[in-house]
Amino acid sequence: MNAALRIGTTGFGLIAVCYGFARFAFGLFLPEIDNDLSLGPTLSGIISGGSFFGYCIAIVASATLTERFGARAVAVCASLVAAIGMAGIAAAPNAVWLAGAVLLAGSSTGLASPPMAAAVTAAVKRHQQNITNTTINAGTSAGIALSGPIALLVAGQWRLAFGGFALVALLMAFVARISLPRTDDTPSSPQKLPPITDDVVRLIIAAFLMGAASTALWSFGGQLANLHMGWKINDIGMLWVAIGSAGIFGAFAGAFVARFGLNRTHWMFLGLMSVGILAVGMTGATPFTTLLGGALFGASYVMLTGVYLIWGVAASPNRPAMGLMIGFLMIAVGQTAGAPVFGILMDAFGPDHAVMVFIVLGLAAGGASIRRKLVAAG
User: Fold this and answer.
1) Burial class of residue 196 (count of CB atoms within 10 Å of its CB; 0-12, 13-18, 19+)
2) Cα–Cα distance, 10 to 7 (Å, whole number)
3) Which of the ends of the chain has fewer CB neighbours closer than 10 A, N or C?
4) CA–CA distance, 299 with 134 (Å, rounded to integer)
């Protein structure tokens, strides 16, 4: 098996477990968790924000640790942290325990991405790197798409689901251990962040705003469907299938950037993401508009994360793990801020006002654009 296929397949699975199960499946099961633990919108938003906050801390540490210890060690650690966090969610007796477990599970996603970027840079031929990176990134969608049928299979038993997810994460740790390169030739004592150029500043702004906007569905998509149509966990599971299945489209981010350029691709999918949020979140939503909106959102979100991945690596070509870290960190900082704010707005003014504010945030991200001329590899 060549390096691109081996690393791409392993990375796809790792990202599916850490992002799809450990981070975003929480929104799928949130209505059931809320019923059992009596959380409410504001507390739900704060706990959801904790997942993204854990990501923020972990991705900074991960980029440094990857440069110091290599891709394999950090990727294995990500899987183990996901397993422990999801086991904690499964066992949570109250909101405080749940918040800590959600934070830990969410931190696994921050650990997972930088080592994969470093492994690709170290072992994959240059002309295959963008496609390999964006294929790995699309693993998020596979995890999300699988979590929907799992919710149906376990009939909304969120503790059972997260226990099963934890076992899969343990298996993924073993796969990463035998499949990924150590990348020991990376710098042994990383010193500083990459230079904060104009393109990096623009990436920070765009990724923050897009991340904040995305929490309208990642954290509250299930709640909105429940509120507008009375959907329960089985129905909401279908929304997650739509989001995840369409998100596989994000594997083509590298090809889109090569064909249309980064800025056009960025604008196009910010617009489609906003349409998706509107279709799911506004009063009058129907099952058809909800599933269609979920598909638009899923495809757009993963495509946009692929855009920011390419943007970050292009802005810091000599330190790809750090370049990826900046973009993905700012997505998560936006999500950390966005989830509690959406919950507060929803409590105070109702869902329609909250949805419209967050659509505006997402579109505002298009005001930032990269100045550097990108030559997107394959």
Assistant:
1) exposed
2) 5
3) N
4) 13
Rounded (5°) CA angle 132-137-138: 100
The letter for the amino acid at 134 is T
b vs e for 268-307, b when ≥16 Cβ sit within 10 Å of the residue's Cβ? bbbebbbbbbbbbbbeebeeebbbbbbbbbbbbbbbbbbb
Whole-number Å distance between alpha carbons of 238 and 295: 11
Q: What is the Cα–Cα distance from 204 to 67, expressed in whole angstroms?
A: 22
- Reported pTM: 0.77
- The residue written with tokens 């918040």 in the block is 99
Output the six-digit token pair for 100.
């800590």
Taking the CA of residue 116 as centre, how many other CA atoms within 13 Å lie in the half-sphere pointing to its CB? 37
Does the pLDDT of residue 175 top 90, yes or no? yes
**Token representation of residue 190:** 């990383």
Q: Are 369 and 266 in contact (CB under 8 A)?
A: yes
Beta carbons within 8 Å of 336's beta carbon, 6+ residues apart: 49, 52, 53, 55, 56
Whole-number Å distance between alpha carbons of 296 and 291: 9
CA distances in angstroms from 208 to 139, 271, 355, listed in the order given: 21, 16, 17
Which residue spans within the chain are E strands per DSSP? Answer: none
| Range 94-97, long-range pairs (CB < 8 A, 24+ positions) | 94/37, 95/37, 95/39, 95/43, 95/47
Residue 128: is it exposed, middle or buried by C-beta count within 10 angstroms (0-12/13-18/19+)? buried
Do the beta carbons of residue 21 and residue 222 sit within 8 Å?
Answer: no
Cβ(111)–Cβ(78) below 8 Å:
yes
Tokens of 27: 């929104």
| Tens of pLDDT, residues 91-129 | 999 989 999 999 999 899 889 988 888 888 888 887 777
Alpha-carbon span 277 to 294, nearest angstrom: 8
Determine the average pLDDT of the residues in 155-175: 92
